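User: Structure please.
Assistant: Input sequence and predicted structure:
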Amino acid sequence: MGEHFARTASAPYERDGPALHRAFPHRRPAPRSAVRTGSPACAFRFPGRAGSHCFLHPSIRPGRNTERRAGRPALSWNADVTIVGAGAAGLSLAAHLAGPPSGSGFRPSVLMVEAPPGPLRSPDRTWCFWEAGGGPYDHLLEGSWDRLRVYGPDGTVVDRSLGALRYKMLRSGRFEEAMSERLRTSGIAVRQLTVERVTDTGDEAVVWGRDVAGVVSGLRSGLVFDSRLPPRLPAARTTLLQHFRGWFVRTSKPVFDPSAAVLMDFRLPQPARGLAFGYVLPTSCHEALVEYTEFSPATLDEVAYQRALSRYCGSILELGEYVVGEQEQGVIPMSDGRLPRRHARRVFPIGVAGGATRPSTGYTFAAIQRHSLYVARAVREGRSPARVPAPHALRARTMDAVLLRALDTGRVDGARFFTQLFSSVPAERVLRFLDGATSLWEDVGVGMRTPVVPMLRSLLDLPLVPRSASASWPVHR
């Protein structure tokens, strides 16, 4: 289903004290007499103070390696913030930090660490999201729609207007290219390293990795935001996988309706456990992204995905002659496991690793945008990122845990559940509900349109279900 972005309405954040040096002990408030100097070791000095303090460590020159001593790797950089991973989460956070400071905040020095070209880099993918009106990424969109359709198992069509919202599709390649250019113009440095570990000494955090030549480097900073996934999923009561294969197809005859996106098409054969549906994002009468998606305990093999997509394109969509262009494939964990909010005093996970994926849907992009904005504000104001609101509120995560339990136990028929939800609740409210942007009373109203008894039973037995260790993260992400 991809990933989404809804309105980023302001949310209250908790204060963590006024002292900037709690997050960056090497920073101190600049006196009014602070002036720039030409010192090669420091971009800023503050006259009138004993031992004039420097924003950067005085023994490190930006962009240069220090000499190796006692056979240990060189510490090659100092930055206020180091971001590990140049995907959606890393680039979004860096872009927010790169903007001009407002009010009493400051602009931290930022270093981006990306993996060298190779298997550690994520493949191209699509991110889908919704928002009201225009947005900051409209110029990068592959397509957008103001109507959604859901097909029930019996072929019933639910066609709904999105009201003030629009459903949008963004290709990761275009987003990453545009954001990287923005960072270059903002002066944010980028290093290519295969990161092996991140250590926290209490006074600073160090990112250790190897460059393309195999040389070990240590990058020192006041804070580290790490988007790398841990080797294993956290222990959970329920873990399903949202796995999908998509084709960008072009047909010889006009068969697609570019005015509406097909969010879920349940006219496909359903698995014994979980649910399966088609997903169609038409960009013209002849072109569309067509996906086969399952929520189930295990992924399929190559032949099964090919067979399912061929059946969907041929027997159900009746595309006639078509050509398959680019393809995409992915696996998104749908789990009620608790991901950590921080790894150490100065090391924080972000993105999927930081809990940005909505467990019940797999959407991630919206939460990444909101969370990145809140984290950037906290850093600029000298507050601890540990006090920033979680990507998804506790109430939303609890509802997700109930739904996952109901789907996994078979108490709820997934195809009928989602069809009934979209047929009985306005689409705009459903999308706000899926984004965690509805009020408590709106949530209750939506809940009354679902199978109440099975959902209530799943809620009541959640405390009795033990959390068990999960498998490693899926290969395709």
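The radius of gyration is 24 Å.
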